[in-house]
Please model this.
Amino acid sequence: MPSRNDFSAARRVILKGVGAVALIGLGNTALGGLPALAAANDKYPEEAFKQKSDADAIKALFGKPHEASDQVKLDAPEIAENGGVVPISVTTTLADVTSIAFLVSENPNALAASYQIPPGTVPAVANRLKMAKTTNVIVIVEAGGKLYSATKEVKVTVGGCGG
Amino acid sequence: MASTIRVRATSNGDITEVQALIQHPMDTGFVKDAKGEIIPPHFIQRLTFEHDGKPVFIADWGTAVSKDPYVKFSFKGGKKGDELKIGWLDNKGATDATSAKIQ
Model:
């Protein structure tokens, strides 16, 4: 009975086909998960945050020198009554900005925050930082692979590191 | 539990402005409690904002970011109704995440 053989052969082919489709489906999901993993790959700069001085923190974070630039606009109050909450923001007219870092010179650990700026994101950040005492706030902007900075002294009447 | 993250994202058609306020103690590890014992460091290390599957802003924080942190930034390419995903991870391994619609 040839017709029966034909049928089972056909069935086998169909089943193989289903198996193959299922495998391809799994393959796609596995690959689909990859970009997210790759994006999360670059790590939290733990060493830079552990450094005490601003110079050591900048070295650990970027490993290259910076120059003062009037294209970096740092906005911070002249006097902060509460060192626990000091509003500080930065904007820049520099092109190709990839990151912006905030440092408070005489805090126990100078580096306060470091922001990654992907293409399409405006190079401007506002945040609130703690300041232990009257000292310099330094902002470093990485643009086109080079570092540009702005510095401003903020007078603190009540320190923000407790004690 | 209610989310620790409050986000407002508003688009003017070209640029989306994002403001986020997060509830977190951001303990420095330098402060003592009423019994004179050091409160151990407890702070958010990384805060990520994603739009359309891509990060638009990544914040790496130390202990000098104020308690209940606030941050503001802007990006291009977002439209009204788009979803923005926000998530944080702290030094004790705790996380929280939420999403917000661009208005």
